[in-house]
Amino acid sequence: MMKRYAYSLLPAVLAAALAMAGPWSFISYTRPFPPADMLNEVRQSAVEDVMALSLGLRRLAADLWFIRLMQYYGTPEVERLKEENGEVELEENYGGGEYPEFLHISQHILALDPRFTNAALYSAASLAFNLSRSQEAISLLRGAMIYHPKEWKYVALLAAIGYSKAKDPAKVSELITPLIMEPDCPVMIRQLAAFLNFKAGHYRAAYEIYKTILETTKDPVYIDKAQREIAKLEKIKGF
Amino acid sequence: MTYLTTTWNIALHSLRENYKHRFFGLFVIFAGILIYVSLLAGVMAVDEEARVLTDLGLALMELITLAYALLAAAAAITNEIKTKTIYLIFSRPVPRPAYLAGKAAGLYAASALMLGVMGLIHLSLLYSRGFTMPPFYLKAVFFIWCKLLMIISVALFVSFFATSTVSTVAITGIFWTLGHFTSEAKFLVARSSGAAAAALKAVAYFIPNFQLFNVRDLGAGAPAAASPGFLAGYLLLWMVVPYLFSLLLFRKKEF
Fold it and tell me: Considering the entire predicted model, what is its pTM?
C-alpha cells in the first residue's frame, strides 16, 4: 500500500519542486546577451540567426560572422585601374574604402557575442583609423562596453580614437601601446601602432612592433607588410 | 543492495550495448572527420583560429552526441519491448525502477564516453595546431554533458507515450531548442502582456533552462548563470522527475 502511494506521491512532490524551480530559474536568470531586438538582420541572416539562438550557438555564429567580416574587408575595393609598362595593374587603397556593410556586420557580431573583444577592437580600429568613421567606431565600442564595462582595452581604444581626431599620432601611439602588449591583440592594431610610431619618429619602437607582428600573426598580408617595413628600417636606420 | 547491483548490471549492459552499436562508432568517426574538417574554418579565421577551432569543435561534439543520445534514448526501451527482449529480463527478479534507472545510467555513461572520445580528438587537433586547452574547456564539456543528462531523461519519458522513435526525437528536439531560448523568452515576456505573457511564462517555466548550463556559449570571461548549488539541484530535478514519471507509465505496461 505504502509502495503504491510512494509511486504516485514522490513524482507529484518532485514535480512541484520542479514547478517552483522553473519560475525561479527563469526570473533569476540574467540575460548575458543583448536583447533580441538588438540582433538586426544582415545579408538575410534571419534563418541562420534563429538557428544559432535555438541551438545555443551564439559564439560560433559570431565567429562565422567575424570570418565573413574579415573576408569582406580583406577584399580590396578597387580605387582605380592604371596601366603601367603595358600591364594592367590594380592599385588599392590599403585598408581604406567605403565598405558600407562594415558597421552592420560588426554590430551583428557583437549582438551575437558581446564578449568577443577582439572582434570589437578590430572593427572599431578599422572604422576609426582606416575607414575614417570615428563616430561609428565610438558607437560600436560604447555598445560593446554595455556588456563588458570593465574592459580596459575598449577604454584605451576610445581614448586613442579621441586623440586621432585631434590629429595627435604620438598620443594615439602612446595610448594603444598597452593594447599591443596583450598576446591576443588583433594584428591590425599592432600594425597601426607600428605605423604611428614610425610616423612619430620612434623608429626603434616601430621596428620592434613589426618584429612582434612577424612572430604572432599568420595573416600573409600583415607578414608581407611587416617584412617590407623591417627591411626598410634596417636599411635606413641600420637596426 | 540487490536493487543497486541490478541497476549497476543493467547500466553496464546498456553501456556495452551502446558502444558496441555500429551507430556509436559511426557517430564518433563522423564527428572526428567533422572536427578535423573544421581546420578549414580555423585557417580562414587567421589569428582567431584557436577560438574558431574551439567553438566549432565544442558545438560539433554537443550536436553529434545529442543526436546519438536522442536516438539511443528513444529506442532504448521501446526496442526491447518490440523485440520482446524485455520479457526475458522481467522473467528474472528485476525491479522495474532498477531496470529503468540502469537503462538511463547506461545512456548517461554512453554519452559521457562519446563526449570523452570526441574531446580527445578535438584536443589532439588543437595541440597539433600549436594551441593549448582553452581555460573553460573542461567546464564547457562537463556542462554539455549536464545538458545531455537532462535531455536523455526527458527523451526516455517521451518514448513511453510517443508513437515512434522519430516522434520522440522530434519532441525532445523541440524541448532542446526551446530550452536555449530563455534569453529571448525573457525579452518576449517583458514585451508582452495579458494572456500572451501568461502563456509564454507557462511555457518558459516548464521547459528545462539549458541556457543555465550553456558555458560553451559564454566563454571564459562571463559570470556564472547561477550558483553551483542551484545548478546541481536543478539538474537533479530534471533527471529525477522525468524518471519518476517514466516509471509511472512503465508500471502500467504489462509484460
Answer: 0.82
